[in-house]
Amino acid sequence: MNTTNNPAYEFLHETALKAPSSSGVYLWRNSESTVIYVGKAKNLKNRLSSYFSGGRNIKTEMLVSNAKSIEYITTANEYEAFLLENNLIKKYTPRYNIQLKDGKSYPVLKITGEAFPRLYKTRQVRHDGSTYFGPFPDAGALDTFIDTLYKIYPVRHCRTFKKRESPCMYYHIGRCKAPCCDKIDEKTYNEFIGEIKSLLKGKDDETISKITAEMKAAAANLNFEKAARLRDGLRALTVMQNQNIVEGFDNENRDYIAHYREGELVSFTVLKIREGKLLGRDNYRAESLAEDDELLEEFAAAYYTENEQVPPQIYISEQDGAEFLEKWLSEQRGRHTSVIAVGASSEKKDVAALEMAAHNAKEDIIRRLRERGDMPALQELKDLLNLGRLPHRIEGFDIAHIGGKFPVASLISFWDGNPDKHNYRYFRLKTTNGVIDDFASMREAATRRYSRLANENAELPDLILIDGGIGQVNAVDGILKVLGLDIPIAGLAKRDEEIWRPHMSKPICLPKRSDALRLLQRVRDETHRFATSRNQNLRTKENTVSAFSDLPHVGEKRERILIKTFMTLENLAAAQEAQIAQALHVRANEAGEILLAAKAAVEKRSETKDSKKLMFQSQLGLAEFAKVSDSMQKGESDREDGGSLYASRLASLALGEDDSSESSAE
User: Fold this and answer.
1) pTM score over 0.85
2) Which three-class secondary structure state does DSSP give residue 395?
3) Using one digit for the tens of pLDDT, what is the confidence trace for 247-264?
4) Is-contact 143 243, C-beta < 8 A?
């Protein structure tokens, strides 16, 4: 997106440079003179000029590219600018300011309107004659309550009611009265439904007392079955209500507000504490181009529209700017409210509540990105890397090992900016086992992955992301050229979050708020997580169990001691006989047998590697071996020995002769 091609760009820039240095409010208008954004500034000239400085993020690019003119109104101070900004936002409802959308989708309990109703959890309320109860903020507690109801009441579980000749399993285990087989009449069945509805209406003490009296009356009439149902139903209802509140707060009413943003998308979560209990979690979705330190004030002005909504205390994060919020609530809403910033030194319950709100906001952003696809980031990546098309499919690679042991390459896949875990893979690397060589590891993983895709004529990714710098990128680029594949590659170096393309002399550096950088970081972090978890599994399984359990005189107890003392089989083979005897409290002859067995096992591993080398070379024709060997060794400046073994191994893999270690994610 090139804003400099906007005919109004120079005019907008000049307007910004001519703005006064006082506080005030500014309005962006489009070609139709519609206000698309309202903002406030302590210094109008500095703030407006920042929109035209270098390193703009995609949100700013979007705003500038759609603007035709800028207006501004000066004020005596920044607080007056804050008040005026809120009034103008309400008046114009600009596209790029926060317009609250209720993003909560709490589940409800539905009882169908059929002759023999069934009950289940849903998030959609339809006018279909059914009865709905809720919403319930805690979906897990509702699941538990429904499961309990099914245990107490023998109502049907099937989605579609139809007549049957023989009842299903639920009838035989006493969980259903089988109305489908006429084992129960409609009147008796609906008595159960009536009791369930009474329980769900039990939101106050009067209703609960009524059900309790009904339970006692049933017991007095010797209807113990009904009395027991009502008793257990009340208990289940109490459990659900208790799980939907958070105890431990004082009796004052308070709100905890947190937000999370990805680009122009912002989600807010408000935890409402009333009389010491968490009664609700409100999630709101917005799109805003405001700076981070302005988001909370803009949200609060849109959220607290009624005086009765404002609690005595509002808790926010230390990072959220709320300079004028307390004063504004007092003057505009007539309520004395304390706005309290929560930090590391605050009370634990306040820190925990704000973290809960922040987590809910982040989860909502993840859902929003998944729903729409991360198109702004994909478009920015396409423009930034000069790709021929949108990178719908991005595959990421990372290497994990411990001192060269158990090297693993992870391959993860993102589709439209979201993880596609069905297409995750990992590779147990073979050419670099025992050798610390990330370049060689990247080459092996890329060879095995893309030689297979090429041989199978499978769909290739639109972009490959390497966790590393220019060295790793060039290593993979060399493999793709040998295979005759044209797939764009980029590397993301952790140190300064620099983006590298093949054979570049300088990296691409993006602002921290860039959508493209955020997406690349998500892919990179996921590759690292997946590679590390796989490496840990291999270490646990192979290095700490099987290696020691096969040694003589070693049972489970001695195996644990060897793991703790020597860690690896190689360390044990290099130890002294006396060290083993002392660690295991065994005689010298037994320690000697253990040591000899360990050395033999290590030697056997080495022989296996050598035999594989000869096998790979024998499987290749001389021409193919020479071609790949020469190509690989040109990039082997980081390794002075082992080039032939590495090249022959890769050549074998490139011809598709060994893919046994490629595995899908669990």
Assistant:
1) no
2) strand
3) 445 567 888 999 998 877
4) no
